[in-house]
Amino acid sequence: MSRPIDTDADTRFIAEALPAFISEAREQIEGIEQLLLQLETAPDDRDLLDALFRCAHTVKGSAGLFGLDAVVEFTHHVETLLDRLREGHLLLTPALSTLLLGCNDQIRGLVDAAAGQGEDDRADARAVLVEQLRTAAGEGADAPGRAVVAAPAGDAAAPGAVSAATRWRVSVAFGPETFRNGMDPLAILAYLAGLGRVVSAECRSSRVPALDQLEPETCHLAFELEFEAAAGVGRADIEHAFAFVRDEIELDLRALDAAEADAPPAAPVPRESCAPAASAPAAPNRGDAGDGPESARGADGGTTSRSARPREGTPADDATRYIRVQADRLDDVINLLGELVIAGAGAALLARQTGQNTLIEANAQIGRLVEEIRNGTLQLRMVPIGETFARFRRVVRDTASQLGKDVALELVGGETELDKSMVERIADPLMHLVRNALDHGLESPEDRAAAGKPARGRLVLAACHESGSVLIRITDDGRGIDRRKVLARAWDRGLLERGVVPSDEEICALIFEPGFSTAEQVTNLSGRGVGMDVVKRNIEALRGHVVLRSVEGEGTTVEIRLPLTLAIIDGFLIGVGPSRFVLPLETVVEVIESRIGPASFDARGRGLVELRGQPLPIVGLRALYALESLHPERSSIVVLQAAGRRFGVVVDQLLGQHQTVIKPLGRMFRSLRGMSGSTILGNGEVALIIDVGALGDLAASADERATPRAPRPTSAERDVTAPLRS
What we know:
- The protein is of the alpha+beta class.
- The protein is 37% helix and 20% strand.
- A 5-stranded mixed β-sheet has the order 6-8-9-11-10. A 5-stranded mixed β-sheet has the order 19-12-13-21-20.
- Helix 2 packs antiparallel against helix 3, helix 3 (69-86) runs parallel beside helix 5 and helix 13 (420-441) packs antiparallel against helix 17.
- The longest helix has 32 residues, at 8-39.
- The radius of gyration is 33 Å and the shape is flat.
- The model is unreliable at 140-164, 265-320 and 703-726 (pLDDT under 50).
């Protein structure tokens, strides 16, 4: 018997798939912004223009599947202008680029509203942008919001024209790769139903092979539909419903005359028999390796937005199989892994106490497997920092324009990988430092010309791996820091006793004091003394370290050093009396034996020794933290390297390598200098994790003239070294 399609199941499916669409749409919107910024330096690059058009078309088409009409209608006007650009009818000028960037911000706002993150209250602004888009594209009488799709050859209707017919016979056979390309035929039919009413539907079972030849991932669906269009819906709108799969389907669209429309429709096959065996979300996802601005294909005007996924068993299959996992699920796995590491350490300790070699060896094997699992799991969270860097193209463009400056942004080392949670949390400090460099550091073109510099300023964001950490540099070739002005402001605010002139490094460090600012006037960007102290606090909350260096008249460099991960590290366990500490293993250079006594340190635990003819600053943890224990007759110096300098830490015991699960410090200990976290040992004791960067600052501040010199080590002591890492 005949009955209309029941869309309840599809409605539920679309509601479940909406978060995937929101995530993908935001990535496509970010891609649009980056492509526009790249096109400003290569406005006639056809590949970039094609990729830009496909990004916009992907957002529009996906939004249509979810019934987000506001996104579809507004993005259509953007798409029209982009089509004119890629066909060569227009040239991308700075004014057009600014217009399109503003439109992209509006699309982002509409997507956020669809996700329930804000209200859609910018209709007036969009109306103004639509008029600007239509004017720029030279649009004629096309109806707003309607997609223009060429009619088939021999059809009397003009492209985009609205036919008087309201009844249509739709015959569609989906291609075999439909499921693999991430599309759901039933979701497409549900979108078509939103343009009117599906009177009847029949699933053609003749295309379905025998059961023993059926491949679940291959689409065999074909439908005969009788469709009643809503007022104003024409052929182009019906064809547009199939735009995402247009290259992969056989579509026949025929207007019904009065006699055919009144004839009883053919009895459809029950809908349950038409359901696909396996269907991917209707929204585009990033399951395919090629997804992104450059991966979408479609030589006929971008009518499809997906890269075909290779069949299972093909050579490219293993290289292109990806899965999207929620970040909180991965966090849960890593937390459980941390507990497994702690439990494994406890089991290994008990095994050693039994003295049973077979049990010890079994625990050692388990420990090696846990370490491999740890390394593989942590690698899942590593993402390139280049995505974060790319966001600053827009920031530099808009801020420099606002300030009347000409600035070239260079991105270096974007492939450097960092823990995803850290990448997210470092974005705001980087944003402030970049804006600060644009406002305070780089001069106007006139000032640069007067100083004999090129009119265009240079701002570099660079990242690299160094000594087991990630080093991020923000460098500009601007005016640098006026140390006299900084000193005067520090004296006025009571940060320094008047007349005291510290070292250049300490003067630069004053910039990070709360409320400190040398700006002559308050602007929208700076001058209120708010921000640099927050930058330092946020970086230190990530167990990071920030240093500012500047040469007056030549420029400023801000260095941020961050650990690779916030979860688990390889550590080197040491003991001072009954206390246990962990040093990041990547920072350990070597260990030397020594006979240093308590008199070798000042009140803050600082001292100096001679190592191979060179002075080596050292820190005594017993003196620094006032640990109540007797000083041993013989001790060891663990030589560490961080931020390009070496120093030593005096310890009583060397307890070997230790997988360290990082736990945050409590509020009482967060102000403890030189500590970045804690960990639980296998016997249940708590060990503190040393912040090597902060401890290095303390060691470097030792004054050789005031600090008692340690006895000169003997040749035997200098030669007895124990390298830990090659």
